[in-house]
Amino acid sequence: MKPVRYSPARLRTDENPAGHPCADLLHYEADLAVLNHLLRDLRVLLRRARAGELVLRPYEVRTWQEDELRRRIVMCDPATLLKGTDVLIVGFLGNRRSTAEAQAIDEFDIDVISEFRQYPGILSYSSMERTPKQWANLVVHHEVGDREAWRHSAVHIEAAEVLSPVVYHSVRIHNGRLRGGPISDGSLAVELSKYWDYDSDPLWHAVRTLPGGVTSPDPWPGRR
Questions:
Q1: Rounded CA gap, 151 and 121, in Å?
Q2: Which residues contact 210 (CB under 8 A, 6 or more apart)?
Q3: Is the pLDDT of residue 105 over 90?
Q4: Where in the chain are the domains?
Q5: What pairs with residue 75 in β-bridges?
């Protein structure tokens, strides 16, 4: 069956949409904190490599645990990341269902990672377990066309359009940029946010544009 596509609602910069808490503005504080945490891990590895403390190999997968929660970085193109050029980012945060079917995404994730060699614009892929079975991902890439090409791969389409409604209650995806790349001290700026509420009937999909980008962990202080 071909997935049904929905035109997204357009949210104002300061809008909290009624009935869709996944798109509440309050999420920016926590989401930016998580994405900056993922960015910090990437920076540490790159700076250690620049200092000659370790060697980073293309498409090498590094895994470890922090507070008994899993972490992972796929360093697709370390040479480009070490140049310090501007990059774009994609941040993924999902609220996973606690069902047996939801565990299918863990095995499917391996297929997604194996695809990176076909998309050289993808520079790195980082993931962290926020709580058991609840993951966040950060993709660093070169140009807008890189993520558009990846989005249209067969594996990504199945993950986004077939598995996600089964696996997640809701999903937030943030698009943005990082001046000087992860080797720099630049701030990650979110410029566009996309939302999917799979518990809504019919499915609810929305987009919020953020002119100038949002960099603060608490972009709207006082809004409670």
A1: 13
A2: 13, 190, 191, 192, 193
A3: no
A4: 20-214
A5: 60, 124
